[in-house]
Amino acid sequence: MKILVTGGAGFIGSHIVDAHIKKGEEVVVVDNISTGFRKNINSKAKFYEISVTDKALSKIFDKEKPDIVNHHAAQIDVRKSVQDVFFDVKQNVLGSLNVIENCVKHDVKKLIYASTGGALYGEVKNPPADENSPILPVSNYGASKYAVEVYLSVYAKLYGLNYTILRYANVYGPRQNPFGEAGVVAIFIRQLLANEQPTIFGDGSKTRDYISIFDVVEANVISLTKGENEAYNIGTGIETSDKEIFDFIVKEIGVEIEPKHAPVRPGEVNHISLDSAKAKMELGWEPKVFLDEGVAETVTYFKNVCNKS
C-alpha cells in the first residue's frame, strides 16, 4: 500500500510516516517546510517539497498514484488565523480542496483528515464534548477546519470519496516544535530547561485535553481500514488546567520557577475536553498514555535534544 502524507515533515505527520514505514508501507511525504523540518522526515520516505496549495500537486498524484492520503498539512496557529483570515483560508480550506480534488481525480481509496476538536466546539457548556455537540468555533482556525469537514461530506455524496475525520484534542509529545505554533507542553519544557520564565495566558485556570502523539498515531493507523465517512474525537476526556500542566512539568524537570501571566489571547476557548466513546466503539481506539508518563517521556526527549545541541 502506498500512503501519501501531507505535512509529513511536521510534528504529527512525521510520527505517522514513521509508523507506516515501520509496518512496511510505502510512504510519500508532501511538505513545504514552512513549519516542519527536513530532519523529521524518515529517510525511507520519498519527499516532495511543495505546498498543498500548489497546482503542481496533481503531478505528484499522477506520478505516485497513492492508495491512501493522510492530510495533515495545515496552518495550525489559532492566533495567526485571527490576525490573517485570508492566509488561514488559503492554507486550510483551499489547500485542503486541492488535496481533495486530487484524491477524487486519481481514484484514491481513502483520505484521512486531521481536524480539530479543541477549536471546533467552542465554549462547551458540559464538557467533555462528543461528536454531536454544537459546532461553534470561536476562531477562524476552527471555522476553516470545519469547512473542510463539510466539503468532505459533500465530495463523498457527489463523487464517492471515502474519508475519515479525526478531531484531535491538544496533541503533545517528542518532536513537537517548542517555538511558534507549538503547544504549551513543548514550550514550557524548553523554557524551563533553559531556566527561562514561561508565560501563562490568563490566570492559569483555562483547561485543555492533552493527548499523546503516540495515541494519535494509533488512531491514524486504525483509520486506514475503519471509520468510513465518519468523524471521531481523539482525546482523553480529561481537563487539565494551564497551571496544572505547568506544575507537572516543573516537577518532572526539578526546577523552582514561577510562571508570569499575560492577558488571554483572542480566539482561545476557556475549557475543552473531548468524549471519545465513539472512537472506542467504532474504531476500537482509546487513549493509552497517561499524562504524567507522556510528559516525562517528552521531557526526556527535550533533555536529549538540548544535550546534543
Q: What does this molecule look like?
A:
Helix 5 links the parallel strand 5 and strand 6. The protein contains ten helices and 13 strands. Helix 1 packs across helix 7. 40% of the residues lie in helices and 17% in strands. A seven-stranded parallel sheet has the order 3-2-1-4-5-6-11, sandwiched between helices. It has a two-stranded parallel sheet with strand order 7-10. It folds into two domains: 195 residues, Rossmann fold; 93 residues, Alpha-Beta Complex (UDP-galactose 4-epimerase, domain 1). With 309 residues, it is an alpha/beta fold.
Count of DSSP H/I helices: 10
Considering DSSP H and I runs of 4 or more, what fraction of the residues is helical? 25-40%
Q: Termini separation (Å)?
A: 37 Å
The chain-level structural class is alpha/beta
Q: Give a quick account of the main beta sheet: strands, pairing sense, barrel closure.
A: 7 strands, parallel
Q: Any idea of the CATH class of the largest domain?
A: Alpha Beta
Average pLDDT confidence is 95
CATH topology (level 3) name of the largest domain: Rossmann fold
The amount of beta strand, in percent, is 15-25%
Walk across the major sheet and give the strand order.
Answer: 3-2-1-4-5-6-11
What is the level-2 CATH architecture name of the largest domain? 3-Layer(aba) Sandwich
- Broad shape: globular
Summarize the helix and strand pattern as letters: EHEEHEHHEHEEHEEEHEEHEHH
